[in-house]
Amino acid sequence: MSEVFKGSFTQQEPIPDAGIEAAIAVMKSGRLHRYNLTGDDPGEVALLEREFAEAMGARYCLAVASGGYALACALRAVGVKPGDPVLTNAFTLAPVPGAIASVGAVPVFVGVTEGLVIDLDDLAAKAGEARVLMLSHMRGHLADMDRLMEICRAHGITVIEDCAHTMGARWRGRLSGRDGVIGCYSTQTYKHLNSGEGGFLITDDAEIAARAVVLSGSYMLYGRHLAAPGPEVFEQVKYETPNMSGRMDNLRAAILRPQLARLEAQCAAWTTRYRVVEEGLRGTPGLTVVERPEEERFVGSSIQFLLLDWAEDRIKAVLRRCAARGVELKWFGGAEPVGFTSRYDSWRYAPSSPMPESDRILRSILDMRLPLTFSLEDCALIARIIRAEVGAVFQGQ
After folding, report:
1. Predicted local distance difference test score (pLDDT) of residue 338
2. How far apart are CA 75 and CA 133, in angstroms?
3. Pairing with 138, which of 2, 35, 97, 154 sits 20 to 30 Å away (CA)?
4. pLDDT grade for 341, boundaries at 50, 70 and 90
């Protein structure tokens, strides 16, 4: 009898008890707004910002309402204006081009490689077309950050890193988010910290940090931040920077602080699960495993593999057959978006030209979450199911 997986691909771990207790304390106080404080209490948000800045090795940190807000805030903070072109990945999720469009700027899409990272040759070719790159570390895959930054420095390009899938990941020992001038993170439920919605922006640039804090809706209460520049920096920007409220609240910050304390262990647990699935898939006829470079220390909270040059009906057969056995795979190759699996040519608000090599890769990508509620035995079972069903379709069964 065929094995069937009975777990849930959307079930996350419970919030730690310490987070629940801290959240209850905030609710009992009634002081959920980050600036609604008394006495010398800095508040949960300010404490979280300081702790996240320390964890990421950054001078400044701002906690905000979502990862998408962090991206749009970052664009505004570096001076992107309506009509400006902004380079970004062809392989990403909708909030990235959405953030660019939200400030009135125009995405310029850069191709994807079989390693599922931004095509650095294509980036070099398009480098003269924009002064900002919003780099998406899509699904946790890190490009060669040394070469990427070399290209960007040579062309005077400001790099904003979308680290929604790489919180805690490293390239040659450097934490993701520390190569660009700004790193942006998400704490949406399926990310590495879970507050339902939320995000962070980090930077070492004092003026950018001050602009971001004012943009987030600090009014003139920026002195209550523990991971922000001094008042003299705010004096330079406070009257010319609009308030576009997107603050994090104390309730979400209370939930996040205990999770941040165990981030390193959680990242290791995800990657252990990833390696079990990866090993189980390796050598499957017709399936290409995405090889990870030695310089990359990734966080395996999801896994992708490629069915290169497969016909659409055969890929859909794999999806159906795996689903019938309890394994939920998402496909980025469909002509129409399904759930989150949109592509660069899905976003009709963003002009684009066909990229045949990237289109070939995008048509082949299958994607799967790896929540920490899965055991290693679950991961091995899932890999066996995918291997069997891909093999069956490949052999024409």
Report:
1. 84
2. 10
3. 154
4. confident
Four-residue CA torsion sign, 266, 343, 291, 7: positive
Separation CA 222–CA 259 (nearest Å): 26
Half-sphere exposure (CA, 13 Å, Cβ side) for 245?
Answer: 6
Sheet holding 106-110, edge to edge: 60-64, 199-203, 182-186, 158-162, 132-136, 85-89, 106-110
- Structural contact between residues 283 and 338, judged by C-beta atoms closer than 8 angstroms: no
* Mean pLDDT (whole number) for 251-261: 98
Is 0.85 surpassed by the pTM of this model?
yes
Q: Which two tokens stand for residue 141?
A: 């895959």
Residue 305's φ and ψ, nearest 5 degrees, are: -140, 165
Distance, CA of 31 to CA of 17 (rounded, Å): 20
Cβ 157 vs Cβ 124: under 8 Å: no
Write the DSSP assignment of 355-388 as a string of letters: -HHHHHHHTTEEEEE--TTS-HHHHHHHHHHHHH
Q: How many CA atoms lie within 13 A of 49 on its CB side?
A: 29
Q: Give residue 156's region: left, alpha or beta (phi > 0; psi -120 to 50).
A: left
- d(Cα 207, Cα 391) in Å, to the nearest integer? 55
Distances (CA, A) of 369 to 170, 298, 299, 332, 378: 20, 15, 12, 14, 13
Domains and CATH numbers, the chain: 17-261 (3.40.640.10), 263-394 (3.90.1150.10)
Other Cβ atoms less than 10 A from the Cβ of 82: the count is 8
- Which DSSP string do the residues of 140-192 spell out, in sequence order? GPPP-HHHHHHHHHHTT-EEEEE-TT-TT-EETTEETTSSSSEEEEE-STTSS
Is the Cβ–Cβ distance between 91 and 98 less than 8 Å? no
